[in-house]
Design goal:
By secondary structure, the chain is an alpha/beta fold. About 45% of the residues lie in helices and about 15% in strands. Strands 1-2-5 form a three-stranded parallel sheet. The protein has a three-stranded antiparallel sheet with strand order 7-8-11, with no helix packed on it. Strand 3 and strand 4 form a beta hairpin. It is globular, with a radius of gyration of 29 Å. The protein starts with a helix and ends with a helix. The relative contact order is 0.09. Bound molecules: zinc ion (2 copies). One zinc ion binds next to loops.
Amino acid sequence: MGVDWQKLFQITPFWAVEAARKGIERARSKGKKLLTVKCANTPTGVLHIGNANDLIRSYFIAKSAEMLGFRARVVFTPDDRDPARGFPPVICDMKGDIVEFPQDLRKEFEEKYNGVCVALIPDPFKCHTTWVEHFLSVYLAELDALGIREAIKFEVYSPHLLYFHGEWDKYVEKVLKEKEKVKEIYRGFKQHVREFAFSPICEKCGRIGTTRVLEYDEKGKRVKYVCGGRHLKKRTVEGCGYEGWTSIRNGKVDWYIEWALDWAYFDVDIEPFGKDHLGSSFRISPRFARELFGVQEPIPVPYEFFTVDGKKMSGSRGNLYNITEFLKMLEPEIILYFYTKRPMTQRDISLRNLNLLVDEWDALEAKVFSTLEAIERGEIKEEELDRKEAAEKGYASSQELVIYYLCMHGKIPEKKPLRIPYNFAGVVGQVSKGAREIRKILMRTGHLPEDVGEKELERVVGRVRRAAYWARKYGPEFLRFEVKRPGKMKGKDREIVREIMGRLERLERWEIEEIQTAVHSVISSRADPREFYPRIYTALLGKRCGPKLGTLFSVLGREKTLELLKAMC
Ligand SMILES: [Zn+2]
Ligand SMILES: [Zn+2]
């Protein structure tokens, strides 16, 4: 008898499952057998962790729909026909690492490509053909690392190619032909009104942000345009002055209309997006969807943006983080876990306190496993989990189980994975070099069983490396250290260190708590701890603070610890 996961999805109030229920209801009412969840992104240089909201939340909804017994897909459209609106000071290289956009190259791009369709701009790193290909390939690799594309029917469409191949002809024709209706809708929202809501790509300079349609030739499926000038994000982009005819496949409709076009073409049921769209675009685009394309807008799933260390992410301010950077610190399932939080609550990621998120996940996992075992033993049933008594007994709620299932892509291990406490792992990672040494330390500290398997070991070593990366780069001051040759202590301090050595030599078991107690009892009986600790850390690590000595010494081992203490005397 296993755990009935489908039943858990049926009863849980988890937000993604609730969104999936609404989406399924909508799809069913239209006689459909497939739920379409859509998300989009603009390939601007770095797709930061805030941009990932769209995609990860779409994934949770689609996967939940499947668990509710309905087929689902995620449609992802990178906005690759948009004009470049300036170039950011930082971009990410092929590996996904965020690097500076070299100043002279950036200047060259600003001059040559501002306002140019991003699908026509070259790759600044030259490893791909275009700007879009480069940044999209990084992004898709990140999604793969999170295990998303493998876990769901995931379709990527390029609007640039859909226009180019004529897939969207009938929509574009409608926008051009029914220009009066388009203008009327825009006027209703007090929006800037252009004669035609379509921008051709200039055949001479490749800009799309600068062109204006003068005439539409319905039979010839072409437009006459001039490449003038236009404001793009506070700056004026000059056109090249070219005037001529071009195909309706060589341009794009206004963004508000393109959003509605997406809904019509992909038959979208539900779409997560940043909540700022709610009061603006999500008022305008539905009108175009209904009145121009004859479809209903999808169910919105708005989400709040989050901040990092209290600040809005920004490339120019140097606080920009992407999935690649987070994968260096967190296991994929823990990154996903962050996105399971309720979408409409404002959240801050504190890099310094990232350990708290990991601890929260580890605790959730422990609770999930004890609950799964209780269900297997028949102590409690799935449908009883959300009762007050169950929570009081410490069982996980249906929501917690479902969150765990989604973050693990449904691959629930047979037994609870071994997780080394994150802060501790950070200390181990800064002391040890290779996997073998990590293994040796963890065996000694009692964190690894004798019979640890290959895979388990690999996971544990991965956590140690990630935690060390975090501790060094973002962790709190006391967690960052390097063991070098220690300095000498003087006078009475030297005596205290000798006494500590004596106590440690006689210690029966080399364990964190016992070491800590022994060291602290000597220090507190012989000196003012608030003054002595900074002095011993200074001698030991060259700075006034460090990890708890119990932790540090247990990781270093008895021999190495005594050697260091001796050198201090
Ligand atoms: Zn490239
Ligand atoms: Zn031009």
